[in-house]
Amino acid sequence: MSGTEGVDQSFIKAGVMGWPVAHSRSPSVHGFWLKTYGINGSYERLPVKPEDLAGALRALPEQGYAGVNLTVPHKEAAMTIVDEISLEGRRIGAVNTVFVTDGGRLTATNTDGYGFLASLKNAAPELDLKSGRVIVLGAGGAARAICVALQDAGAPEICIINRTNARAETLVHDLGGTSNVAPWAERAGYLKGANLLVNTTILGMKGQATLDLDIRSLPPEATVADIVYVPLDTPLLAAARARGNTVVNGLGMLLFQAQPGFEGWFGKRPEVNAALRAHVLAAG
Ligand code: ATR
């Protein structure tokens, strides 16, 4: 008698590993898609302590998982555990999506940059990334993913402005060629002539200080993107919209970054649409 008798072989499992993981929106996103497409599978919250990460990842194949998402604090640590890392993951220096492949191998990638670009294309289709200057506020993990994606999309100049200048310098060093650093205290003066401004800091997020930035010198045709999605309409986006700039909120990045994982695990390219947006917002 087979040991797998009674086990539904067509059932596909995935989830998100984090510590803590209770606040992750990913179960809401993937749960909506599983239901929408009638897929026989699940997406679970997987609370995993940092010291248990290696064991938890290594156990995925035998536990029948197709893969997982990784969130804080596992995105960098996982790189030393998995068998293979995509070029994008290596350039960003962090991974957020793991696929169990043939023979139980673990392949990891980072889809945050993809998510940001897809969201940008969706909300600001007229934006030409190949011309003009991009200003990125912040130099954390999200900024790294976004800068790599913008560079790959052909942005000719990325100016990184961060409270801790040394972190911006490190990111510019890692990116090479097309990027430079400007001082945080002089941020407003660098907006002149920019065609895209991106806030990757936590400023403007519910419970955090507001981003203090005078955007008067930003061209009116520039696009302004914020990766903060609680609230959806940050003070930065509200100010930009009031003066006619195209604005891109942070929800799109959260939704689009989930697409490659879902497609890889469950075999269906899922759609980011109004119903998904409403569902994730309602889930809070
Ligand atoms: P993530 O991986 O999500 O990008 P992170 O690595 O903690 O998170 O980065 C958060 C970003 O917000 C950083 O650029 C951080 O600036 P520092 O590198 O100087 O810490 C920025 N940030 C956080 N609080 C800030 C504040 N009060 N003023 C300005 N920038 C702030």
Q: How far is the N terminus from the C terminus?
A: 47 Å
Provide mean pLDDT, rounded. 96
Give the cofactors and ligands.
Answer: 2'-monophosphoadenosine-5'-diphosphate
Helix share bin: 25-40%
Q: List segments where confidence is low: pLDDT < 50 over at least 5 consecutive residues.
A: none
Strand order of the largest sheet: 2-1-3-5-6-4
* Quantity of strands, as a count: 12
Q: How would you describe the overall organization of this protein?
A:
The chain has ten helices and twelve strands. Strands 2-1-3-5-6-4 form a six-stranded mixed sheet. It binds 2'-monophosphoadenosine-5'-diphosphate (ATR). The site of 2'-monophosphoadenosine-5'-diphosphate has 15 residues, from helix 5.
Secondary-structure map with pairings?
Elements: E1 12-18, H1 26-36, E2 41-47, H2 53-58, E3 65-70, E4 84-85, H3 87-92, E5 97-101, E6 105-109, H4 112-123, E7 133-137, H5 141-152, E8 157-161, H6 165-175, E9 179-181, E10 194-199, E11 223-226, H7 235-242, E12 246-248, H8 251-256, H9 259-266, H10 274-283
Parallel strand pairs: 1-2, 1-3, 4-6, 7-8, 7-10, 8-9, 10-11, 11-12
Antiparallel strand pairs: 3-5, 5-6
Helix pairs in contact: 1-10, 4-5
The structure holds 2'-monophosphoadenosine-5'-diphosphate.
2'-monophosphoadenosine-5'-diphosphate binds next to helix 5.
